[in-house]
Specification:
Bound molecules: flavin-adenine dinucleotide
Structural class: alpha+beta
Largest sheet: 8 strands, mixed
Strand content: 25-35%
Strand order of the largest sheet: 5-6-4-14-15-16-13-17
Length: 812
Amino acid sequence: MTTPPTHARAVIVGGIIGLSTAYHLAREGWSEIVVLEANKLTSGSTWHAAGLVGQLRNSANITRLLGHSVELYKRLEEETGQATGWRQTGGLRLACTQDRFTELKRQATVAHSFGLDMDILSPREALDLWPAMQIDDVIGAAWLPSDGQTNPSDTSMALAIGARRAGVTIIEDCPVTGIRVEKGRATGVTTAQGVITCEAVVNCAGQWARELGNMAGVNVPLASMEHQYLVTEPIPGLPKDLPTMRDPDRRTYYKEEVGGLVMGGYEPNPEPWARDGIPEGFHFALLNSVWERFEQHMENAVARVPALETAGVKQLLNGPESFTPDGWFILGEAPEVRNFYVGAGFNAFGIASAGGAGKALAEWVAGGEPPMDLWAVDIRRFGQPHGDPAFVRTLTVEGCARHYDVAYPHVEHEAGRPLRVSPLYDRLDRAGAVFGAKLGWERANWFARDGEARSDEPNFGRPNWFDAVAREHRACRESAALFDASSFAKFLVTGRDAESALNWICANNVAREPGRVIYTQMLNAKGGIECDLTVTRLDEETFYIVTGTGFATHDADWIARHLPADGDTRLIDVTAAHAVLTLMGPRARDILSAVTQDDVSNAAIPFATCRTIRIAGAPVRAVRVTYVGELGWELHVPSDSAGAVFDAVTAAGEPHGLALAGYRAIESLRLEKGYRAWSSDIGPDHTPVEAGLAWACKTRSNIDFQGRTAVEKQLADGVAKQLACFTVDDPDVQLHGRETIFRNGEQIGWLTSGGHGHTVGKAIGYGYVRHSGIDRDYLSSGSYELEVATVRVPADLHLEALVDPANLRVKG
Ligand SMILES: Cc1cc2nc3c(=O)[nH]c(=O)nc-3n(C[C@H](O)[C@H](O)[C@H](O)COP(=O)(O)OP(=O)(O)OC[C@H]3O[C@@H](n4cnc5c(N)ncnc54)[C@H](O)[C@@H]3O)c2cc1C
């Protein structure tokens, strides 16, 4: 047995994901990489996976990662001499309802946007590819020819061989029993055979990743779930190279294996496992099969594949797998501990993901930052509530149960709610709010009036809240609207060095006089946008930072890791201390002046400034900014006074037509005004120059800031993509993002966000047009179409905001 070294550069714990990370980290030029496995390689979830390898996801970069898996699996056998069982069989997905068919067509367009071939087939064409099925209820199918299947254990072994050849040491039967953390950094691991000090610890421990994370004080929010599939004896006449097939309306999937079938499914009543921790010694182990739960799949499957009725059953396999609350895996450096990386929670697509996720994680470890925008899977998308395993499990169970539901836009999860509520929750509830959830917070999406159904009714067409959101939108444009934005994440950065530290982190100039509000991005060294937020200077040494609800962990982590270690700065989360009421619209000043004796004129509080005013006995920070393109204020209120301020403002607003409004109206309003949304329109892969935000960078000052060199280079040399706005006149077209953009008939990008603008009365989308040396002339000289659910529709391009491009209303 190999004796563990006393030092390594990286210690990686885990199965196929860990092996892939080691394989790729060695190719990043790292040496002294050690993989530790508590038992034998693949003894976790990997050995019993079914081995389907699908690629398409709703994120371009995650689809790209899965595409890398396919590329790798194609060549791994030749490279290592170890058979992997990889077969590019293609993947088929069936639709048995019109809504499902629409979903498939939307997915096909997403695939086209991301550069994957995906065809829509007739039932007959699907039958030709999968002759063993019956198609009476099938109305169409989608076909992804580059999908495939692989043998999980053999593929892992091939990765292990490839890693060893590149110098990686793999040690089996060597459980990690502790993680060393010194001054907030992981510095080593403890095993029964001694301590290994190291520069990076990589936790790819599958369903044990939560336990391993706990050893370092790191939260890895995943839950183990039972997952069953059936393996048949060979079925006479079954073609050898059947594509993998997913039949979501029957909740089942299929793969051909040695002349028989593997058939599994996702039941509406999934079963969590190991609530109190994984039992000792659970390696190469399975759970008891539960026929009662699997019967529903059997019934569905026999109707699809009649031969299953008589096929011999080799095994009904029940294996545990780790799932996450949102169905995306967990990747990246933990916000709690530096140099502690996680790659876990693979939601039954860990084999499909291993190649690409391992590569991305290896590059993250080697480069100290994600190699591209991986926000969808970034460990920092979680927050406070995800520290509670019961909350995580509740959401995860619901996610598994809905795995094969039609993916309608705007669907909210229902489990684990309500959890975090604003002090105004009861008032909004009484006013008819229909809530959504973000990072555990209940947030009003829209308000139903008497006679309107008080719930979202999902569909692909005009949603049932369309008129309500139009009403709230119009109120905001024509009179005033009040939004509860209390879930905003809020931080203080304080200290003698706060100004210089923040001015390095922020692209805009925050060294302004107290009372100034600065909209800014925070950039990485490549100029990519890591955060998009406002900074309000309260006094010489205090800055108040406000950012989106979902970015609380991410933005705090980004700021904290860029504050100077030797400076006098502190970052304090004050989210819970302040409720936020956003009062917006042409009558906002009339309303505000009716509830305060303080001067709220343009002279007293010009745009982009902040003053403390008194409302209902409370000191309220009135921050003059907007995300909807109207005159207005964010009113930051001590939480204990939120109710009194709300009552005063709503009473004063009544004669002015003030309406309560929700997040769906905000989205419609901001699309019209062209305000960018971080995580869709802007992110680490996009720079301010590409996103039309160069005006918010202090390049004309002599103050240096992170990303400045990259921004200046782009300003001088030009860019290869630029964010543009599109509208579609056809009232039947709904845009949701990821629709393909065509210019003069040529594919040149995809939408990053989409929705409906109720002032302009059109569908609106934003997306990057990609072309080397792109400029306004190139953009405005083209003729544009968008592919929406595989159909091309004419679109108009706009380079100015659709509403109030001169900002007259905002500055009003
Ligand atoms: C029934 C079933 C079917 C599936 N089908 C598919 C499919 O068709 N396609 C697909 O892509 N995915 C599928 N999956 C999912 C896939 O199996 C997993 O996502 C994948 O195997 C996860 O790999 P991993 O490396 O993260 O975890 P694991 O394979 O579980 O590896 C983690 C390893 O870490 C080791 N470990 C844990 N703690 C320690 C410690 N303290 N010290 C040292 N070592 C430790 C464990 O022993 C284990 O070997 C399926 C899963 C199940 C259950």
